[in-house]
Write a structure and sequence with these properties.
With 76 residues, this protein is an alpha+beta fold. It contains 2 helices and 3 strands; from the N terminus they run αββαβ. The chain has a 3-stranded mixed β-sheet, covered by helices on one side. It starts with a helix and ends in a 6-residue tail after the last strand. The relative contact order is 0.24.
Length: 76
């Protein structure tokens, strides 16, 4: 799995989001800006992202991903 595919999956699942993904060999990190995170706890934000990647995590294609999640207001 490559970083472009992970970015595309996240951004298509969370419409209007911007994902910056780094890493390789099954271990990645992602910084995601998404207005839909507004009012959600960190755990619930991560659940939204993990749900979009669930099939790849279960198959082992995506071994590990570290997430940082923000709204646009939080990155200013």
């Amino acid at each position: 799995m490559d970083i472009k595919k992970i970015k595309d999956i996240i951004e298509s699942s969370l419409e209007g989001s911007i994902a910056h993904v780094e890493g390789d060999q099954g271990k990645y990190s992602a910084n995601i800006i998404y207005e839909g995170f507004n009012g959600l706890s960190t755990i619930n934000r991560h659940k939204l992202v993990y749900n979009s990647l669930d099939d790849f995590i279960k198959s082992g294609e995506l071994h590990a991903i570290s997430l940082k999640t923000y709204t646009s207001e939080e990155v200013k």
